[in-house]
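Table S2 (text version). Query chain:
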Amino acid sequence: MANRAPEPPGRFSLLALLAGAKHEVGLAQLAADKYGQPQARGFAVPHLPMVRDLGVATATGGGNLASKTQIERVADAIRPQLLLEQLGAIKVETTGVASVSFPRFTGGSSGWISEGEAAPSDATNTATVTATPHAAASRLGMSRQVRNQSGEVIEDAVLREISQAVAATIEAGFFAGSGTNSEPLGLLNTPGINSETFAAATPTLTELVAMIEDYATADGDLAQARFILHPSDLTYLLRAQVDYEGGETIVQYIDGAHRICGLPVFSSRHLTAGKHLLIDPTAVACVYFGPAQILLDEYSGGKALSGAAELVTFNFVDIAVLRPAQIVVGSV
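Corresponding structure-token output:
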């Protein structure tokens, strides 16, 4: 008997998943069964740990259940990389747990000793920072025309819009979440962070340098320090001069990045306008619980009659601040 050629890795399409295609639904069920869902709300979208698992074996060994490239682009859209993660924040994707605890160390002692003396005892205090799931829901409206079309161009457009909606929801919570009404406790509201008060909405260079001083005094690594500003605040500082009519602006573009006193500056519209953030990104952890979930709402609000639908994504997330003193917020 002639040897049968192995089946090629299957395509993974988000629109096909929503339409109930057998291949995509099977992988979604595999993700739900193997990696767990804190609360079932729809299809589980394979996340990056599962994408890696699917590519462990070769196609000839029967290990490639889906094209890694195609399934990865869906996973990346449903759970996009946030600015904090791009800058170096710790990313934790966990499954099958209700919470994740991180140690937070404070204190400690040291000193010089004479010959024969015992070293000072370590008086470090260890606290626990616990991350628990908060459901970030993002909705995207889809017309009958979009739903009836197919092809990579349409799918890419849908994935792009989903990615932006999900990032907006999670980043806003991670930056400014109140810790109430199902929101996570965001960086700006975390107890123990440093703060500086500005005399006006647009800070002076001296006031921004005071933020750097607070950060460095807390043993912050200046090589890791990053400013994060709302786009409006960034544009104000691009126009603000160090000295009146001196020509030099507070924010300058040097070596491929906007900088304040040599420290890189990044912007996010999801950070509260008027809040100037200086942070070591490694001082925080972005935690994801289980795979993202997605469903297609075709019935509420008369959708069944109009043919429209809403695509709803759910990510269970939290942010843990490991070293709050290395986060500095400046504002009026």
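Notes on Table S2: Residues 80-106+127-332 form a domain with the Major capsid protein gp5 fold fold (CATH 3.30.2400.10). Residues 152-176 form the longest helix (25 residues).
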